[in-house]
Structure formats: structure tokens, C-alpha cells
Design brief:
This protein is an all-beta fold. The chain is built from no helices and 9 strands. It has one domain. The strands form 3 sheets. Strands 4-7-6-8 form a 4-stranded mixed beta sheet, with no helix packed on it. It has a 3-stranded antiparallel beta sheet with strand order 3-9-5, with no helix packed on it. A two-stranded antiparallel ribbon has the order 1-2.
Amino acid sequence: MAQGFESYNADGSSNTRITDRLTRILGTIGPVSAAGAITVPAFAQGTPWTAILQRNTTGGFNPFRCIQATVSGTTLSWNLSGLAGWAIQPATIVYGVY
């Protein structure tokens, strides 16, 4: 008998199967407020993804520098975008694979 995981919608159609690619969170970095990089060997186990959690704590519509994250191979790097005079708002980077 085959083993695995499957879930179904109320109408009986398949929702999730064991062969589906599900997201896995590998870790977080932060708060970060300057450029940097780390090596994440687990990026080789799937397709890497990142999410930046950053909010404007200066209030109103004041511009602030955003954190940008990129992945190349097993290296996760981040830097700041925006004008040099803009405020820097710390951010948390969440990363993983799917």
C-alpha cells in the first residue's frame, strides 16, 4: 500500500499532494540596518526565496531607505536603496526554500 500525504477540497478535488513543493523557512536575520551577506548552504536544497519585514517608524510619508535582498547560489546578501540622506529603518529578512 502506498504511503504519503494528500488532502482534498470539500468537492473531492485534490488540494495538496506529497509531491507538491511546499515552502520551508530556514531562518531570519535582523534587525538589519546596513549592507551584509551570509552563506546559507540549505539554499542548495530547493529554490530560494526572501521576504523583507520593514516598516516606517518615522511617521507620515517621510521617505526611508529600503532593504533589498538577493540570492546568488548559497549566498544571501542585502543592501540599502534610496537616497543617502533618507532615514534608515531596520528590517528583518526571512529566508527559505520551496
